[in-house]
Amino acid sequence: MSGRLVVMGSGETAPTMIKVHRQLFDLVGDGPALLLDTPYGFQENADDISARAGNYFRDSVGRGVDVLSWREEPPEGVGREQALAALRAARWVFAGPGSPTYALRQWTGTPLPGLLAEIVRTGGVVVFASAAALTLGSHTVPVYEIYKAGEPSCWRPGLDLVRELTGLPAVVIPHYDNAEGGHHDTRFCYLGERRLALMEPELPEETFVLGVDEHTGCILDPVAETATVVGNGTLTIRRRGVSSVFGSGTVVTFAELLGARPPTHVSTVDDRPAVVGPVATSLRAAADEHEADFVEALAGRDVEGCVAAILGLEQTLADWSADTLTSDEADHVRSLLRSMVVRVGALAEAGAADPRAVVAPFVEALLQVRSNARAAKDFATSDAVRDSLAAGGIDVRDTPDGAEWALR
Predict the structure, then answer these.
(1) Distance (Å, whole) CA 189 – CA 51
(2) Under 8 Å CB-to-CB from 247, ≥6 apart: which residues?
(3) 45 near 255, Cβ under 8 Å?
(4) At CA 22, angle to CA 16 and CA 23, rounded to 5?
(5) Model pLDDT for residues 316-331, shown as the tens digit of each residue
(6) Do 4 and 126 contact (CB within 8 A), yes or no?
(7) What distances in angstroms separate CA 49 from CA 52, 56, 90, 308, 323, one per listed residue?
(8) How far is the CA of 153 from the CAs of 94, 156, 275, in angstroms?
(9) Choice between 217 and 371, residue whose per-residue pLDDT is larger
């Protein structure tokens, strides 16, 4: 049975990756599944991150996972041996957000990397995303130290699991198409083009960058010697500033990755993970779609459409609640939800029905009274009806074809 080493650029606990996770779980059946908490083990909210990730896999993916706590390298003893025994038995292991350099300090020199490789060799699945994905190559980007603390741009030694399992001399960079910086370049996991170009010459000649976009996965199959691109973005192979890009749905051979040539085929093998369709790649983007639907419905005084947009936004907030990527987007969406409720309340107070349709029977009745008065040459009554309608905001205009009226 062929195992898989999976690199996810981001979105590992977002709705965008649900289908991919489900199909990866299908490959291992009911085997033990572990969530490795090391990359974020230094954070004060580590328990909360584990809980949210566990909820995501249970509620959204439909598979329960156990947390393997390795926040610091365990000392010799029963606890360490129990953790290693759990890894030996695991068929699926996941690690995600946090700090790659912190994770490497806890893993390097321990049996853990070797056990991860053995899981893949024996038909299991190892899924590393975001910070954890950075550790898989021969070299690692110390992203926090460079981007947040201003250390000189440099590489740190990685686990080199990609080369060990596939023979590919790769440096893995997730968040490859990141655009959070707005006016400054945060591509390439917050390095930007300038920093990455400075660092590339420090790599060995044969080494290349394996870049995985956000909300995108690269599924490496060591037996078939193929890489499958899934999700919303692309896989990029970059050598000294020259890039080859492979789109979602592509299955490319290791030989093609080594040569960085365009793929010669797209696989139609039934058991490869399906490409995820167009799904919003952030909570804010998903919320904006519901906001647009709400504005359109509000303009058309469509109460049912307004309610559907509000319910859709509330469900989106629930769907993204397990995402372990911390940001202020949830606060923004809750504010948007409250605003939508207030606006639909104002619509209800004013009346959602077309006011012309509401008053039409009464106006038509008064106009008939006025018409009868004019026919009887009772112009005083005719003028009184017209003036009363005008006072109520309804303008009457006499035409050869009869009286016409309009709301002012």
Answers:
(1) 25
(2) 229, 234
(3) no
(4) 105
(5) 777 676 665 555 667 7
(6) yes
(7) 5, 11, 21, 31, 9
(8) 28, 10, 35
(9) 217
